[in-house]
TrEMBL record, chain A:
Residues 265-330, 639-669 are annotated as: Disordered. InterPro entries: C2_C2CD5 (IPR037785), C2_dom (IPR000008), C2_domain_sf (IPR035892), C2CD5 (IPR038983), C2CD5_C (IPR057815), C2CD5_YbjQ-like_dom (IPR056430), C2CD5_YbjQ-rel_dom (IPR056431). Transmembrane segments: none annotated. PROSITE patterns: C2. Residues 1-109 form the C2 domain. This is C2 domain-containing protein 5 isoform X12. Residues 274-289 have a biased composition (Polar residues). Residues 319-328 have a biased composition (Gly residues). The gene is C2CD5. It holds the Pfam family YbjQ_3. Residues 290-318 have a biased composition (Low complexity).
From TrEMBL, chain B:
It comes from Erinaceus europaeus (Western European hedgehog). The lineage of its organism: Eukaryota, Metazoa, Chordata, Craniata, Vertebrata. One of its GO terms (biological process) is platelet aggregation. The gene is FIBP. One of its GO terms (cellular component) is nucleus. This is Acidic fibroblast growth factor intracellular-binding protein isoform X5. Pfam families: FIBP. One of its GO terms (molecular function) is fibroblast growth factor binding. It comes from the Eukaryota.
Amino acid sequence: MPGKLKVKIVAGRHLPVMDRASDLTDAFVEVKFGNTTFKTDVYLKSLNPQWNSEWFKFEVDDEDLQDEPLQITVLDHDTYSANDAIGKVYIDIDPLLYSEAATVISGWFPIYDTIHGIRGEINVVVKVDLFNDLNRFRQSSCGVKFFCTTSIPKCYRAVIIHGFVEELVVNEDPEYQWIDRIRTPRASNEARQRLISLMSGELQRKIGLKVLEMRGNAVVGYLQCFDLEGESGLVVRAIGTACTLDKLSSPAAFLPACNSPSKEMKELPFNEDPNPNTHSSGPSTPLKNQTYSFSPSKSYSRQSSSSDTDLSLTPKTGMGSGSAGKEGGPFKALLRQQTQSALEQREFPFFTLTAFPPGFLVHVGGVVSARSVKLLDRIHNPDEPETRDAWWAEIRQEIKSHAKALGCHAVVGYSESTSICEEVCILSASGTAAVLNPRFLQDGTVEGCLEQRIEENLPAGCGFCHIPYDELNMPFPAHLTYCYNCRKQKVPDVLFTTIDLPTDATVVGKGCLIQARLCRLKKKAQAEANATAISNLLPFMEYEVHTQLMNKLKLKGMNALFGLRIQITVGENMLMGLASATAVYLAALPMPGGIQIAGKTPSDGSYEQHISHMQKKISDTIAKNKELYEINPPEISEEIIGSPIPEPKQRSRLLRSQSESSDEVTELDLSHGKKDAFVLEIDDTDAMEDVHSLLTDVPPPSGFYSCNTEIMPGINNWTSEIQMFTSVRVIRLSSLNLTNQALNKNFNDLCENLLKSLYFKLRSMIPCCLCHVNFTVSLPEDELIQVTVTAVAITFDKNQALQTTKTHIEKSLQRASTDNEELLQFPLELCSDSLPSHPFPPAKEHLESARSNSGIPAAQRDRCSSWIELIKLKAQTIRRGSIKTTVTVEKASPMGEGNFRNRSAPPCANSTVGVVKMTPLSFIPGAKITKYLGIINMFFIRETTSLREEGGVSGFLHAFIAEVFAMVRAHVAALGGNAVVSYIMKQCVFMENPNKNQAQCLINVSGDAVIFVRESELEVISTQQPTANCQQSCAGGEVTT
Amino acid sequence: MTSELDIFVGNTTLIDEEVYRLWLDGYSVSDAVALRVRAGILEQTGATAAVLQSDTMDHYRTFHMLERLLHAPPKLLHQLVFQIPPSRQALLIERYYAFDEAFVREVLGKKLSKGTKKDLDDISAKTGITLKSCRRQFDNFKRVFKVVEEMRGSLADNIQQHFLFSDRLARDYAAIVFFANNRFETAKKKLQYLSFGDFAFCAELMIQNWTLGAVGEAPSKPDSQVDDMDMDLDKEFLQDLKELKVLVADKDLLDLHKSLVCTALRGKLGVFSEMEANFKNLSRGLVNVAAKLTHNKDVRDLFVDLVEKFVEPCRSDHWPLGDVRLFLNQYSVTVHSLDGFRHQALWDRYMDTLRGCLLRLYHD
C-alpha cells in the first residue's frame, strides 16, 4: 500500500434547482477512486450545501494513483425514485505524486455534466501521503515530472537530455460498443471521459517508466494525442523528450528582473558551469546526486512496455562515417564523432523540444517530414497495439533516414499527427534535421574542453545556419554561399525549420506569420481505392504547399521559416493542406531575390503589358513588406563575401516522402527541376490564380504583428497584458459543382477573414503581437470546413521595443563588422533609417502616450480595487439582511460606519475567484515562473439535444469552450497556481445534426500549471525570505475577484 | 459559402462598452451593426462589414450568456465561467441596472405588476425607448423590489449588498422601490415638471425620517421583533400626525403662529405682503396634508397635494427660492414658541422632512 489518498468534501454553491416543488436541492456527494466509493450525508434543501465531510481515505497502489482519476459525483437525493446526477468532477491527482509540485489540491471545481454543462461548484480538498517504495520491479513511475513546455522549463537546468520517449495505448471506443445502443448519451459520454482519463494516466505512467530506465527524471515537450478511429477503436499516444533536470536553487530563481525571455535564457548558468553539483543546493530529487555515466552497452529497450517498436525494425548502422571524414576541419570531425557516439545508441534520435539551451544546437539541416496513408482495421487485442506501433515506427525510421541524408544525426522540433476520415488515416511526422552538441546528451562533466572549442569556433548567431551536410556530396541540389555573418562557413539561401528561432540568432527587422493554404478535390471512394487516391494526391499537395510557402517568403523579402507546421487533413471528398510558419530575415543568410514573372506567349502585346503590370505589383509588394517589417540588411559588397559558389540554383530544404499501406516509398524532388524557383510562369489561368492569391494576403493592420512561434522575432519588450483566445469557424460550401479554384478561394477567405476578425477584436490591445498562432483544420462533414485557432495576444511597449531592436541591429552589425572595419559606417545609417520607418501613424502614437501617461500600468489595472470590493467586504461582515450584527459591531467601535468599512479589510480570499492566466507560450511576459505544479491534461465531452434553445451551434460551442477554460482555471487554482503555460487545445471535434436539434463536441486541452510572480513584486519578495513568501504573495497579489 | 459557426472565446472575457450599450438599448444585431457603421468604425479600423457583423454577434452572444448572471450580481463575482476583471464586472452590473430618466418617470410609483408590464408597449412608443430595453428596466425594478421587499435594515444597504451597485445607483433604486411600495402618484400632469432626481431626493428624506427603520435606529430594543423596514411609512407616526391639526383648527394658535412668523421675517422677505396674505392658506395646506396621511389614498397623493397646496400658490406669486427657504425655516421653527402646542417632536419629524422636500420640489 504505497499511498493513501485523502479527500474531503467541504461545500457546494450555485447548485441547480433539482426539485421543482421547493425550488431547492437535496444534494449529496459520491467520492470514487478505483473501486472504492464513499458518500457524504444528504444536505437537505439547499443550493449552497455545507457538507464539511470527514476525510475519506483510499489506500491504493501508486500504480493506481497514476492511472486513476478521482471521481466526484454530485447527486440529488430522491426518496421515491432514483437519485438524479447533478454532475461530476474528475481530478487528476498526478501533480500530488512528485515532491516538487503541488502538495494539496484544494478549491472550487465546476460541477460538470456532459448534457447540461457546468452546474454549480464544489469545494474539495485532496491530499496524498506517499510511502517510500523502493521496490525495484515496480510498475509505477511516481516522481517523473511531465512538462508540455517544449523547452527546458524556466526554473530548471538540463543536466542531460536523454532523448525520445514514446508510447501508445489502444482500447475500444465506448461510443461504438454494443452497450451504447441501450444506454443514455450521458452514460456513454461519461464512460468515454473516464476511459480516456484512465488511458492517459496509464500512458503517462508507462512513459515515466521508460524515463526512469533511461535514468532521467522528467519528460519535457510531452505531447499526448487521441485518435478517434471510430469503429476500429481509440488510440491514445504520446511522445516527449526524456531529460534529467536539476532545479535551480532559490537564489538563482530570483535573478534580477528582465523583460525578455531571451535574456532570461542567457542568464541561466548553462555555459559557465559544466559541473552539476554546484547547482544542487535546491530541493533535490532522489536521482540527482548520482553520476550519470552512460555505458554504451546499456540498451534502452523497454521490456516492460507493450508497444515496443525497436524489435527488429532498427538497422543500427552508423551514420555515414565516410562523409564525416570529408567535413570541414578536424574539429567538426571530432564533434561529429562525439555526438554520434551519444546518439548512435538511440533508436530514434528525436527531440520534441523547439527551443534549446544555448550551445545545444550546432547546425540545422532543414525540415524532414514523412506521411503515410493507412487503412484502419479493428484493433483485435487492445493489449497488443502492435499494428499502430509498427506504423509509427515505420514513419520514424523514414524521418531518421531523411535526417541522415541531410548529414544530420538528430531531429529536433519533432511532432506527430494524424488525420482520420472514415477508415482512412494519414499519419504524419515532421521535424528539423540537426547536428547537436553532445555535451547535453551525456554526462555534462566530461566535455569541458570541447565546450571551449565550440565557443571559439562557432560565432554566435549564425552557427546553426551553417550546412551540416557535405557540400561536395549534397543530398539535393542547393545554392550555397559563404555565411553573411562570419563569412567562414557555407550557408543555404533559405532555411525551413520546425523549431523556434534560436535566442542567439541574429535577425534583421521583424518576423511575420506566413500561411500556405490548399484544397484538392478527391473522388469519394471506399477503402483501398480511397487510400490509393489520397496517396496519389499527397505529393502534389506537398509540392504546392512548398511552392506557396517559398513564394510568400520571397514576397515578404525574408529568407527563413521557423515553427513550420504542415497539416494535411483528409475529408470525404477533399484534402486540405495548411502550412503555418514564422518568416524572418536571418542576417547570416543571403538576401532573397525577387520574384520574376514570365509569360509563355511573349508575342501578344497586351499580354506583355499585363505581365509587366503584375511584375510591378509584386515588386511593389516586396518593397512595401520590407519597409513594414523593417528589413534593412546591411549591404555587403560582393568582394567581401566572395562570389557565390557556382552551383545549380535550386532551393529546397524540404525532404519528404510518401508511403502507402503497401510500404512503397516514393521520393519527390521538390526543387522545381532545372528552373529557377523564383520565376513564376504564367501559362494558364491556374498560374494566374496563384499569382493573384499571392497578392490577396493582407498584412495585419498597423500596430499588429503575428507569428506562430513563441516569441516574435524583432520584438523584445513585452508588457504584461496577455489575452489567450480560441476562435472557431465552420463554413458550409455550396455543394454545386465545386472546383479546386473555388475551394481554394473559399478556404483562403475563411482563414483571412478569421485573422481579420481577430485583429478587429483585439484592437484595444494595440500595439500587440499575436504569438503562437495555431490553426487547425478539420473536415467534419462533406461540405463543412472547420478552422480552429488558438493564440495569445501580448502587448508590447512600442517605444522601448524600437530602441531594443535598434540596439539589437547595432549589436548584430558590430558582430558582423568585426571582420571588416570599413563596415562601421552602417550602424549610423541604420539608426537614422529605422526611426521614420516604424509603422504607427502619429495619431495613434498620441493616443498611446496619453494612455501610458494616465498612469495605470496594465498589471495594476488587473487588480485595481474598486468599490465593488468594499461592498463585498461589507457583505462579509454584515450577514444577510440582519442589522443586528452591524449594530453591535458599530457600538463596539467608536468610529462611524464609513470608518468601519475602511477599517475592516481582512483579505477575503474565500469569497473571490483568483485570476488564472492562460497562454500557449512557455513564459509569462513581465513575470517569473517560480514553480511548476504539474501537467494539466483534460478531456471533455459536451452534448446537447436542445441545440436551438442553447443558441444554435455558435451558442453551444461558445458556452462549451468558455466552460473548458473555466475548468482548466479551476484546476490550476486548486493546485495553488495562477497560470497555465504551454497551453494547447489538441482536439476540438465538433459534430452537429441540426435536423435532430443535436450537437456533440469533444475537446482535449493540456498545459503546465505554474505559479508566477510579477517582476515588480519580485523585488519586494527577495528582500524577505524568498521561499516562504513566494507562494503566499502570489496568492495574495493575484487574487482579485 | 456561409458561415455556420463563428465564435471567439477569450480567457479574459472581452467586453466592448459600445456594443454593450447597443445591446442594453435593445437593438437587434443588424441594427447594432448599422449603428456601428454609422459611427464610422469601419473607417477607423479598416474592418469590413462582415468582420463587424461577426464581432457584434459574438458580443451579443456573450452578453446573452452573462445576462443570467447579471440577474444576481453576486453570482457574477463568484462564477468561474467568465474571467472578468473586477472593474469590468462593476461596469457590467452598473450599466445593466442603469435606467432611462424618461422610462423611470413613467413607472415611478406604479405597482410593479403584470398589468404595468402590459403597458410597456405604450411607454416604449411614448418615450422612444425600445420595448426590449423597457422590459429590461422594468424587470430590473421588479427584481430588486422582490429581493429587498421582505428584508430588514437599510433599504439602500440591502440593495447594495445584493446587487453590488455603486452608492448612487443603490440610492436611486431605494427610491424606486420605496415609491413602488407606497404607490405615490407621480404621473399627474401637474407633477410632470418634476424629475426623477426630485422624487429620489424626497424618497431618501422620507426613508430617513418617516419609516419604521427610522425609529428602529433608536437602540432601545435591538432584539425586538418589530419589522424595522425602510419600505413602509411608520403607521403610528402617520396616525399621530392628526394631532398637528390643532395648529390650524385653533384660531388663536394660528394667529399667534402667523404673527410670530411675520414679525421675524419683516423686511427680510421680498414677497412679504404675499406671504402675509397667504399665510393661513399655506399653513392650512401643510397641516392638512399631514392630517390626511392616515388614509392610504391620501398618502399616494402626497406629492399632488404638496404641489397644489404649497408649490403652486407660491409659484403664482413668484416667490424666489430663497424666500421660500426663509419662510419654511421660520414657519417650522416658530412652532417651538407656541406655548399651547405640545407635539414639538412630532412636528419636527414631519416638518424637517417636508421642508426638505418642498424646497426640492419648488422649481419651474
